[in-house]
Write a structure and sequence with these properties.
Aldehyde Dehydrogenase, Chain A, domain 1; Aldehyde Dehydrogenase, Chain A, domain 2; binds nicotinamide-adenine-dinucleotide; 6-stranded mixed beta sheet; 499 residues; 7-stranded mixed beta sheet; Ald_DH/histidinol_DH
Length: 499
């Protein structure tokens, strides 16, 4: 049995007495490896290694840190096929989609290759008589990232790339369901010239998460996962005085106006609802057509498009998506489909019961389409996170917008229309963090930043972009003057003002 070890101080670390977790191959439905689950002592070991290495790394001039990031980027590109294959085998997404997962993380590495520029501070000459004021951004020391199963390359890279480029040390606690890719990334970072101890990987479950949240030397924690856990992690870390950034679940809506290019919208929605088996926080699992006629035309086209979808093993180049991540998750998604039917929605396409020849034990699910979903249904209010598209019919634009705005989650939303005026009104008023106009999956590019509203995000700074740089640095502001002649120029017992 293949074993997956921690990566601390530049080397694989194991613990013979540790608990082990099974890592499945979702296409085969079989255990393919075991991961060592850490504990508080392993977290302390990783923090000690980070603490020893971090001051030297932070003292390097930022151009030299940028050169390591450039080399890291090259190595990820060179190892793209190997990483994608490793990712697909543990996650189940098709190879092309795994490459997209890695690429979106790589783009954050590209962004932080500009770290000398990103870290430049501000300067005011003559803020008072002979007084200059300047500010600088300094690393916070040691940060950690706790990541979900659904983007095992992109999300660790969202976090660790800005953190280390800013001069911090970083500890990744990957999802225990697909832990191999973050370890491989840490090995490549070492090969790129990152000092030992600057990027450590500690595997585990709640035990390791709690140890990270309680360790006094970890100054900031970034979390991405489901909302209840995000809120818990946020609360515990913040109570311990840490800087916290916790992204949660989602239920993104795609609103279809009667004037939309329906063929393009259908192509976009099918890709965004079923791609990666719907296991994306920026998937579009709810479609809101405006008007009965739009809804009927949309439904007809969706049914036709769904019939053309191919579900297959990750290595099948013609498959649009692969299995869901685990047997338990498959059962959960199926239970939501049954709940939606019991609540009164209409089952238009049933994706349950799909079996692939030769892969009968794999966690495959066909695409499901449900119509006449209503906003009071539990299956609508909760995140399903599977290949399930729910149609919620609205009679007006205002009614349609009220659904994403009123929903507990506010990660992403999309509007399909040809009306620019309406689109402007929409982007300005909708209560969701990331908005697409005729764009189904509006994941911002690496030099903007990613974050949802309401129960999709706890904390105030987003992932990557300038927010990422702010999250992993502290501002220090210096007010200075150089009195000449050594004489006391003034003395005051009043707070200095600029009157
Ligand atoms: P999850 O919440 O089960 O796990 C996320 C991380 O938390 C993992 O590392 C896991 O080990 C850890 N964890 C799990 N239970 C814990 C507990 N009780 N205490 C402490 N830590 C715990 O999420 P998942 O199933 O891996 O990922 C899917 C979820 O992530 C979905 O809800 C999805 O919407 C969300 N997600 C959100 C974003 C975003 O940016 N908003 C991005 C990707 C995924």
């Amino acid at each position: 049995m293949r074993m997956i070890h921690h990566f601390i101080d530049g080397a694989a670390v194991t613990d013979a007495a540790a608990r082990l977790g099974d890592v499945f191959d979702p296409a085969l439905g079989k255990v393919q490896a075991q991961v060592t689950l850490g504990d508080a002592a392993m977290v302390a070991r990783a923090v000690a290694s980070a603490k020893a290495a971090q001051p030297g790394w932070a003292a390097l001039n930022p151009q030299r840190r940028a050169r390591v990031m450039f080399r890291f980027k090259e190595l990820i590109e060179q190892h793209m096929d190997e990483l994608a294959e490793m990712l697909s085998r543990e996650h189940g997404k098709v190879i092309a989609d795994s490459k997209g997962d890695i690429q979106r993380g790589l783009e954050v590495v590209e962004f932080v290759c500009g770290i000398p520029h990103l870290l430049k501070g501000e300067f005011t000459e003559g803020a008072g008589p002979g007084i200059d004021v300047y500010s600088m951004r300094q690393p916070i020391g040691i940060a950690a990232g706790i990541t979900p199963f659904n983007f095992p390359a992109m999300i660790p890279l969202w976090m660790c790339a800005p953190a280390i480029a800013c001069g911090n040390a970083f500890i990744i606690k990957p999802s225990e369901r697909d832990p191999s890719v973050p370890v491989r990334l840490a090995e490549l970072a070492l090969e790129a010239g990152l000092p030992e101890g600057i990027l450590n990987v500690v595997h585990g479950d709640k035990v390791v998460v709690d140890a990270i949240l309680d360790h006094p030397d970890v100054k900031a924690v970034s979390f991405v996962g489901s909302s209840d856990i995000a809120q818990y992690v946020y609360g515990r870390g913040a109570a311990n005085g840490k800087r916290m950034q916790c992204m949660g679940g989602a239920k993104n809506h795609g609103i279809i106006m009667p004037d939309a290019d329906l063929d393009q919208a259908v192509a976009d929605i099918v890709g965004a609802a079923y791609g990666s088996a719907g296991e994306r926080c920026m998937a579009l699992p709810v479609v809101v057509p405006v008007g009965e006629e739009t809804a009927d035309r949309l439904r007809e086209k969706l049914v036709a498009a769904i019939a053309d979808l191919r579900v297959g093993v990750p290595t099948d180049p013609d498959a649009q998506y692969g299995p869901v991540v685990s047997a338990a998750h498959k059962a959960r998604v199926e239970a939501y489909i049954q709940m939606a039917i019991d609540e009164g929605s209409e089952l238009v396409v049933d994706g349950r019961g799909l079996s692939l020849q030769g892969y009968e034990d794999g966690y495959f699910m066909g695409p499901t389409l449900l119509d006449r979903v209503t906003p009071t249904m539990r299956s609508y209010n909760e995140e399903i996170f599977g290949p399930v598209l729910q149609m919620l019919r609205a009679s007006s634009f205002e009614e349609a917008v009220s659904y994403p705005t009123g929903h507990q989650y506010g990660n992403g939303v999309a509007l399909f229309t040809r009306n620019g005026d309406l689109a402007r009104k929409f982007m300005s008023s909708v209560e969701v963090g990331m908005v697409g106009i005729n764009v189904p999956i509006p994941v911002p590019v690496a030099y903007h930043s990613f974050g949802g509203w309401k129960r999709s995000g706890f904390g105030d700074l987003n992932q990557y972009g300038m927010d990422g740089i702010r999250f992993y640095t502290r501002t220090k502001t210096v007010t200075q003057r150089w009195p000449s002649g050594g004489a006391v120029l003034d003395q005051s017992f009043v707070i200095p003002t600029m009157r």
